[in-house]
Amino acid sequence: MNIRPAEDRDRPVIAEIHARSWQENYRDYLSEDLLDNQLSGMMAERWRNAEIGRQDIVLVAEDDRVQGFVAVWDEEMPYIDNLHVRSEGRSKGIGRKLLAAAARAAKANGRKGIWLHVVVGNDRARSLYTRLGGAPDGIEDKDLYGTMVPNERIIWRDIDILVEQSN
Asked: Which strand (E) or helix (H) includes residue 44?
């Protein structure tokens, strides 16, 4: 499995993986119409137009094709906005490898911590993040295309913990 920086040519596949992941995992939270009829186009537009800053981190994991991606927006404490892996690639360590590479890149950018949101009820993802040393830090509603969905904030105040636990 190769982890590399995303290129412009990866944007359509990132959008496809992102939409498919939501379609598979967010049925309890988002409307059927949004998931089945609107989301693919919305994600395609989102990723086609996404401004990726110099210190933002967008990585893909690929073997014979792109299997997953991570997107981290550079802030005082970087925000892991997305981590998605194709369903057939889950439980194979791809998410862990993407998180490790993203944490190393954020650390190289001089960042000390990192955080993310996980949808409340996404126990599989939450379990991964806490196994990797992430600490729960409260629940807040997040607007997902017009639907308020409870999300738990997971934080690594010391980014080295994520780097070490992910390897």
From this structure: helix 39-49
> By C-alpha distance, which of 27, 18, 41, 32 is closest to 149?
27
Look at residues 124, 87, 116 and name the one whose alpha carbon lies nearest to residue 99. 116
- The CB density around residue 32, as the number of other CB atoms within 10 Å, is 9
Lookup: tokens for 6: 């995303």
* Tokens of residue 127, six digits: 């379990």
Which burial class, exposed, middle or buried, applies to 76 when counting CB atoms under 10 A from its CB (0-12, 13-18, 19+)? exposed
Q: Give the whole-angstrom CA distance, residue 124 versus residue 3.
A: 22
28-81 residue pLDDT tens? 999 999 999 999 999 999 999 999 999 999 999 999 999 999 999 999 999 999
| Sheet strand arrangement including 66-73 | 2-5, 57-62, 66-73, 79-85, 114-119, 147-156, 135-144
Cβ–Cβ under 8 Å, residues 7 and 68: no
Query: pTM above the 0.70 mark?
Result: yes
Q: What angle separates helix 94-108 from helix 159-166, to the nearest 10 degrees?
A: 140
DSSP 8-state assignment for residue 10? G
- What is the 8-class DSSP label of residue 35? I
